[in-house]
Amino acid sequence: MSRAYEDDLEQPFFDTSKPGPSPNAGKRMPARRRRAKMELRRTTMHMRARQPSLHRRSIGSLPRGASAWFAACCLLLAGCAAGGQPVPTWNRPQVELRWPLPPEPPRVAYVGALTSGDDLGRQAGFLQGLVRLVTGHEPRNMVKPIALAKNANDLLVVVDPAIPTVHFFDLRRSRYERLSRKLSSELLSPVGVAVSDDGRVYVSDSVRAKILVLGGPERLVGTIGEGVLQRPTGLALSPDGNTLYAVDTLSAQVVAFDRKGRELRRMGGRGTGRGSLNFPTYVATSLDGRVFVADSLNFRVQVFSPDGDHLMSFGGPGNAAGTFTRPKGVGVDRFGHCFVADAAFENVQVFDEQGRLLMAFGSSGSGPGQFTLPAGIWVDHHDDTIWVADSFNQRVEAFRLVVDER
Question: What is the pTM of this model?
């Protein structure tokens, strides 16, 4: 529309500022101008009718099309702002850390730490944070990681009872997901986790007294142990993935289930003698199927056969090397060595197959290779990585075995 035509529409056809008959009286408005003026009036009325509702809307409740457009623009700008510069997968130390100290040959080396989903890709800048705010995405930081497990496909799963939620780290694809809000509402106290190679995730809830079986961050497959378990805590799978071992802390037993959730057997029972348990917490399995249980208030680790027979125990109460004060997570490497985290010593002790102390690594603190209230442990049989849930430091730390394959 030309500016001359716009000015023509803005002028009244009658001059109402002067009394008496208009000089235009008796003249008929041209049809083209009448149609244009009516169209302008309809458009103005339509806009005024819509205007109040638009003013009442917040950014988070924009119309569907506008929200999608806004989110797409933010994503595009965030991608441009990132500049294509990837960040390291790990928060790595400036100097290499190894244990034991020289002149002994190193057996364990520090790899790095994960604190949030942002450690697996590009750093989250301002615009990415804005997009998460608008789209309602959950924070990606860990608050109190207490147990973790990993499968052969490099899926690392961490349970976080402080939020409560479950963190999914796809290390192979550098992707992070968090349990959906709907499924997170099913959790009150997630404290144990196990992951099968086919991607099935088992999460124990000590308050709801059941185990959730997940097919991913947004899919609930089923539950195990309802009406059977009193306070499920630590979880572990047999090497073939067909048997799930669940620690029931209140009954002082370890309960074995098959893949369909049917109870197979129990081991332990309240007591202090051989094969008895006193508030057990964590559990792990070795490649040959043995079951290692953190017998926390007996200050020892108990070892059972796959059939539930007691084989041995090691440790004991004390504050010297080879004893325990607050034993927590247990893990077993491919050589049969057992790794035990102690929340009081704030280190990890390593024992051989006969239960003899080999070494310890880590110390109290928040720096690389240090712990504050370490909890769960996972030892990877495939790449010899040792994962430790450093709960009070809000991270998981990774170490690796220094293996001489000669």
Answer: 0.76
